[in-house]
Input
Amino acid sequence: MTKGKRIIFTGAAIIAGLYFLFLGLVKAKPFLAPLVTALVLAMLMLPVSRRLEKWGIKRVYASLLNTFFLFLVSVGFVALISLQVQGFLSDWDKARQKIMPHIEQIEQAVYKNTPIEKEDLKLGNSASPGAIGKQAITFINKFYSFAGDYLLTFIYTFFLLNYRSKFRKFILKLFPAEKQAEADKVLKDTAGITQGYLYGKFLLMLFLAVLYAVGMGLTGVSNFIVISLLAALLSIIPYIGNIIGFIIALGLGYVTDGDTTALIGIVATFFVVQFIESYFFEPYVVGDNVDLDPLMTILAVVAGSLLWGVIGMILSVPVLGMINIVFKHVGPLKPFAYLFSNVNEKD
Output
């Protein structure tokens, strides 16, 4: 086989392999997504579990306490968001009266300047009883699927924490004796980079929620608490999350207040907070814990969104950071570690 044919054959094999890999990941989402999420959460709570065990608490109880704590935090956050959303919905009639004139103006402009007719929009909005019933069944199925994955994630987290020594020894046994020390270092570095990144991100989200709430509360934005919480939560998605949070904040602020004052307050708040985040919080709170190139990070977030949706976007950065740690310790894969790492070089 000539060199040219070998290059073509190798390239085709790589493309086909990547295609089937990503296709398999998409199909395996119901199984892998809760497991990977639990793995990341277990790494996050690992130092706390070790501390409890040093205090004399048995591992099974320490693992159970950590898992229960994560469950309570998640339930409490959902409850807080739900209460704020209920308050928002209770004011919906007033907000609707404010924004309906603006919506009607937009509709008239669409009818006047585009080929769209009023009947077309009415036809698109109409739905038969059968279609509504089908949508209801789809919603119920998705809800039960989400609830099952949600509970399964915490079950996985408990077992990963409780049997972590067995899993660690299993991984080390896969390598020859002379390579086990390096493999153990990879495991420790992987856990450390995940913990550092997630702890930093959680602190950052807390700071952002407070600053958003203060800024929008002082500027008179209604329902500023739910807007602040959503915007801070979305910041866990690198780069893209802040943009999505800003767009959602503009939409909710305008729907609630129906005037430009709320929009100005939201824009000013986000501008100031994003400046503080970029130059103070991000370097000192999060830092370079994952050591990833910004372009590779964005590509990972986009790929995670295409594969697993929102949960894929959230998991993309810590998973890519763990993969990069492995690349740094495997000789043939070190060029990929150089590509993924945040290395600034001049031409």
